[in-house]
Amino acid sequence: MSKILLIEDDRALFEEIKQQLQQWNFHVYGIENWEEVMETFIHIKPELILIDIQLPKYDGFYWCRMIRAQSTVPILFLSSREHPTDHVMSMQLGADDYIQKPFHLDVLVAKVQATLRRVYNYNHEEQRTTQTWQGAIINVENNTVTSNDGKVELTKNEMFILKNLLSKRNHIVSRDELIKELWDDKRFISDNTLTVNVNRLRKQLEVIGLGTFIETKVGQGYMAVDEGV
């Protein structure tokens, strides 16, 4: 199991994050003595660090500097502060990501997994069943889309359409191509049925703030917009 050092002084939030990460087979450690943060880090040798900015004695930026002075371990900041300078500062100090509170725990898990895969080239099973899009987590195994605004469950056809659109992000996928993919997957679908399914997909995504990112290109098809690409 990957070891994660969670440097968070809010005990309720610490336990909530710990329980969620443990469900994904991560071993989570915390700080028992705020005078011994570096000693804890050196003793545990974590594969990843989650750290709040506002902490007892010294802030997260201080500990990030101390850790970076002797390690390249990936660091993800967790913060309820909305100052743009905090985000900039964390990146300048060598952090790998900055996650704004409040956040959905599924989003946090996905960011942890993605960071570990990138840094250590891990090959977790979940890599084949989840992907990120516009900050949301797409889980093709249970047909759910989760963002900070909530979670929706799609039908199999809706998820199949979304998965195909996401495979060609920021590129138009023609209606004929989508229908062919659905037919080849043994799904009976007509041109009119495709329209109905895409409209339902968009309405579902609107619930969690993602509806505008599925664009209709008149006379051409559909496109999943991804500003992060």
Quick synopsis:
It contains 8 helices and 12 strands. With 229 residues, the chain is an alpha/beta fold.
The main sheet orders its strands as 2-1-3-4-5
Write down the overall mean pLDDT: 87
Which percent range describes the beta-strand content? 15-25%
Proportion of helical residues: 40-55%
**SS-based class:** alpha/beta
Q: If helices are DSSP runs of H or I spanning 4 or more residues, what is the number of helices?
A: 8
Largest sheet features: 5 strands, parallel
How many angstroms does the end-to-end distance come to? 31 Å
Protein name: Response regulator transcription factor
Keywords: Cytoplasm, DNA-binding, Phosphoprotein, Transcription, Transcription regulation, Two-component regulatory system
InterPro entries: CheY-like_superfamily, OmpR/PhoB-type_DNA-bd, Sig_transdc_resp-reg_C-effctor, Sig_transdc_resp-reg_receiver, WalR-like, WH-like_DNA-bd_sf
Pfam families: Response_reg (PF00072), Trans_reg_C (PF00486)
